[in-house]
Amino acid sequence: MPRFSATFGGIPSPARWGNYAEAFRVIWRYIVNTVGYAVAGSVCVMILSAVSGYLFAKKTFPGKETLFLMMLAIMMIPGILTLIPSYVLYENMGLTNTPWAIIVSSAAGGQIFGTFLCRTYMAGLPGELFEAARMDGATERRVFLQIVVPLSLPILATLFIMQSVGVYNDYIWPLLTIRDSNLQVISVGLTLFTKQFGVTDLGTRFAAYAISSVPLLFIFSFGMKYYIQGMTQGALKM
Fold it and tell me: 121 in helix, strand or coil?
């Protein structure tokens, strides 16, 4: 059985840095896959949610409130209930065992909450800005891209972080839809890693766990300011 020695600084003595090199050699592909899926899915959610949120917040069309309430009702359905129907749908569409199984699922699943978040935030934006821009001859496209999007960057950054963390931590859906280990995500990859190195090689396993957390630490380190700002302003406008 492996032994552990407790130190005041939390660093084991002696430190075996070779475990990190060995772990990174195996899991780097899983990390690259997961980061790619998370970024692609989160960008799609940001775009779709920003457009939908702006329409629900600042535009008037028949059935707007009813449609919005229907979207809120969908949020109340546990995702596990739609797991098997979703898998059958993706299998029939030929998306299983491809990166699109993760990206499309992420974009479709996160859009509803993203729309709710953006709609709540954008409803508090002053309408005078939009009217002044239209009086100056700005098109609706220009109003959205040059006024709405810049003012909504905090909530969009918040949405990006939340969606990225969700994709990064997802386990059941990738395990169900991805069979090729070269396309697998880090959450499932760590399980495969444990099977490869065995349950007794704890040093390499813990090194892999530490390396896998670096992308999330990076996202939070650079986006925490916008995350807090977006959540605070969104809560106040609710």
Answer: helix
> How many structural domains compose the chain?
1
Domain interval for residue 112:
19-237
Alpha helices in the chain (DSSP H): 18-58, 64-75, 83-92, 100-122, 127-135, 140-143, 149-151, 153-169, 172-177, 186-197, 202-212, 214-237
User: Is residue 111 in a domain?
Assistant: yes
What pTM value is reported for the model? 0.84
Q: Judge contact between 198 and 215, C-beta under 8 A.
A: no
Positive/negative CA dihedral, 157, 73, 48, 39: positive
- Tens of pLDDT along the chain (238 residues) come to 455 555 655 666 666 778 888 889 989 999 999 999 999 999 999 999 999 999 998 888 888 889 999 988 888 888 888 899 999 999 999 999 999 999 999 998 888 899 998 998 888 888 888 888 888 888 888 888 888 999 888 889 889 988 999 999 899 999 999 999 899 999 999 888 877 766 567 788 888 888 999 988 888 787 777 666 656 655 445 5
Q: How many CB atoms lie within 10 A of CB 42?
A: 26
1 in a structural domain: no
CATH of residue 190's domain is 1.10.3720.10
